Amino acid sequence: MADTLNQNTNIVASNKKRSSGSDECDHHDDSFFVSKKQSKSLVWEDPAAALANARHEFGEHGGVNMSIEASATFTVMEPETMRRMFAGELGPDRDFFIYSRHFNPTVLNLGRLMAALEGTEAAYCTASGMSAISSVMLQLCSSGGHVVASQTLYGGTHALLTHFLPRACNITTSFVDVRDLEIVKEAIVEGRTNVLYFESVSNPTLTVANIPELSRIAHEKGVTVVVDNTFAPMVLSPVKLGADVVVHSISKYISGAADIIAGAVCGPASLVNSMMDLHQGSLMLLGPTMNPKVAFELAERLPHLGLRMKEHCKRALEYASRMTKLGLKVIYPGLEDHPDHALIKSMANKDYGYGGILCVDMETEERANRLMNVLQNFTQFGFMAVSLGYYETLMSCSGSSTSSELNNEEKELAGISPGLVRMSIGYNGSLEQKWSQLDKALSKMQEKMPF
Ligand SMILES: Cc1ncc(COP(=O)(O)O)c(C=O)c1O
Question: How many angstroms is it from 153 CA to the middle of ligand 1?
């Protein structure tokens, strides 16, 4: 029975390495992410199925949840072991840990789950989404390096590429409209461009990237494709569609409770290992380490990410359809008249929907603010707050908040209207209860001026 369980559900017992009094352990499981193999040779079909197939760690005393390895440093039984660990002969693939800025078992466990979610060989979790993005760029580009990036990106990423990387590291970026594949092709300089960077679904304009085609173009010129999948976990799986690396702001949907800032880099084992290198690794040397207590909490939330995404997406589609019928200018890739609807449909994993964010263009900032004020302070539909993926609806006027790093010309190029309200649709309460609050607010707005 135990063997059957082990085979079918990929369950392993906790580490008993220390009990023998020797550092050489018999248990050599090469499913740690530093090895090239996935946890089992099961075919990746769907993110939820992959998560269910991922190895399940029990607690030290047989608890259904793993124990938290809340240690900054780790002991060895024999002095020689320390030398061998630093020489790279013994590592986390054989359950040898040095120090938690390098590897920590609880953080590594979350990394394994993130790798399963995105269907990558490996993943490593970081203290924020921005540290995941900056570390990956610094690993893939050297001084003099070049990036081609979408002109529609989260404001912080845009600022990193526009201001910080050129000043601090002499890494420059050409921003392009990634919907125009010819322009992307022209912007890539073979032999000089290191990375093609874009968001699977862009923040805040909700344009959808043609991941297979963009990856093909980049690969023809030897360029690594990095995709920020923060807006569409479960919905899209960029590496399965041809990209090389996925970055996440875990602070959003994956956390789901708006209480944690965290990130992840999911990609080939060779890349993740290089980022952890003692001499040249951006994660190891810049040190945006995740706390194991945080990693534990996040690992407990991944099993219900799929259920949450389905409900976010279902409600976003329903509200987007109803708001469109009321005459509002709604942007949502799940609507048939969205220019990227056919594209997202062709790429999306089955049964998750088209994302939990919708935008409504109120044309002016004044009208956007008035709508958000009514929605929060009169009908209690949601909160005026940045971020997304929370169980409550969160609303912000992107041009003056999360995209304020872009100047007016950049905002125009990115398609961010001054009155664009981004709504991350929550799932608390019933769909109809929340719709009545939204509907009431919209009626109140119309009393002053029709849409
Ligand atoms: C698409 C996207 N990527 C990355 C980030 C940065 O993530 P974090 O806030 O976790 O550093 C954000 C934050 O808003 C985002 O929206």
Answer: 10
pLDDT per residue as tens digits for the range 372-419: 999 999 999 999 999 999 999 999 999 999 899 899 999 999 899 999
DSSP state of 372: H
What long-range pairs does 82-87 form, CB within 8 A, spacing at least 24? 86/278
Quick one: tokens of 400?
């003056």
- Read off the pTM: 0.92
- Alpha carbon dihedral 365, 367, 373, 375, in 10-degree steps, equals -120
Fold (topology level) of 105-303? Aspartate Aminotransferase; domain 2 (3.40.640)
pLDDT band per the 50, 70, 90 thresholds, residue 42:
confident
Cis, peptide link before residue 204, omega less than 30° from 0: yes
**Ligand 1 pocket: which residues have CB below 6 Å?**
128-130, 154, 156-157, 199, 203, 228, 230-231, 249, 251, 261, 263, 402
Just give the CATH number of 304-448: 3.90.1150.10
Question: Measured in angstroms, how far is the CA atom of residue 381 from the centroid of ligand 1?
Answer: 24
CA distance 61 to 414: 53
Query: Would you kindly state where each structural domain of the chain is located, as residue ranges?
Result: 2-94, 105-303, 304-448
Are the CB atoms for 67 and 14 separated by under 8 Å? yes
User: Ligand 1 mean position to 9 CA, how many Å?
Assistant: 33
DSSP string across 5-64: HHHHH-EEPPP-GGGGSSS--S---TTSTTSSS-SS-PPP--HHHHHHHS-EEPPTTS-S
Please indicate whether the domains covering 105-303 and 304-448 agree at the CATH topology level: no
Mutational pocket test of ligand 1: of 134, 154, 265, the residue with most ligand atoms within 8 Å of the beta carbon: 154
25 pLDDT higher than 60: no
3-state DSSP assignment of residue 366: helix
